[in-house]
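so im writing up the methods section and need the cysteine desulfurase record in one place, dumping it here so i stop losing it
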Amino acid sequence: MKKIYLDYAATTPVDLAVLAAMQPYFAEKYGNAGSLHGLGQEAIAAIDKARGVIAKVIDAEFDEIIFTGSATEANNLALRGTIESLLNLAKRISVKPEFQQIEKFSRDLPFGRNTIEIHRPKIIVSSIEHESVLETARDLEKEGLKVVYLPVDKNGVVDLERLKNSLDERTILVSVMCANNEIGTIEPIAEISKIIKDFNHEILFHTDAVQALQYLDCNVNKLGVDLMTLSAHKIYGPKGIGALYIRNGVKDKITPVITGGGQEFGFRSGTENVPSIVGFAEAVKIVVAKREVEKKRVGELKDHFWTELKKIYPKAEINGGLPARAGGPARASEPALPNILNIYFPNQSSEDLLIKFDMAGIAVSSGSACSARSTKPSHVLSALGLPPEKVKSSMRFSFGRSTTKEEVQDTLERMKTII
Ligand code: PLP
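--- predicted struct ---
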């Protein structure tokens, strides 16, 4: 039986052109980018070239791209780095006027433990962020930071009124993802940026664009973000390489989480992973070149799948991913990402379904596969306001570059017996 992979939001296969671009940097051009000899020069040149490619695609400056070991690490750097920087700043004797509040906070109670509510710095994150943002926020909360978890509507779009009401003089960072990995909802990032910056342009705005880069224009200036997280393995690049865009001008507000040899402009020490960095850039190039065509093609597959699925299983419902203000589009592919479809199957258990799908040769997901093989109920579906029985009966289908109409058709056929 032919295997069908419908879990591209979890990870993607490495594109063969990406693999070919990486290949020479393992055993042939293996220099350490920190070395001054020829091999080292070759490595740093490759990294510089890759950095330039990625910077250009998101309309950033060359030195605004920081390579990390994953998007998880980039998200950690964005959140922890901001807090650390603030605390360092607060510890200095002379502080800028806008940080006087924080100076007081630091003087009274260093590192935020047991802080008095009024002095606690605050960050705002959406309640449907990836675990690498949410768990980091929770961890910082334990350290005394105030965290606001922004609610979303039934389609997964963040509550902008709540955002407006949550911003105050203590707010130092807001993090809202570009597009969600479980339901595909696209967040109004430019609108959110305007709300934040109109309130106080000193507040940092971070977005996790890991799932978005493949299908959306992630221009940091159009979106108005200060920090942006990217990952290679969601876009047919290698696993274990990510990047954080840090806008020039806010760099003094970010302190490295990993210290050492001072690589990556001092923001991320550790010998650079040259093959993966080269592969990341190659993957970005290909994904951007194919973006519009793939967006349309994959979107049509998703629409077809949903239309036909409804015929087999009329009670199925789409979770999230519909337009916020319109109450739902005619087409399943807008305005969510074209590749992700999260479906509720009444009276079915997603764990059982997952096994049945697997036995039928179809790889899908019962939620976010990025959370270490866990089958815990999805926090994203819960945040949509779905009751637990719906959360436990939902599956994520995600399509990709190799998905064909025949495969979709074949999946639907096999599903007739599964459900
Ligand atoms: N952010 C989002 C939206 C994701 O979907 C993922 C996927 O795992 C991550 C972050 C983490 O990426 P990485 O696997 O590179 O750490």
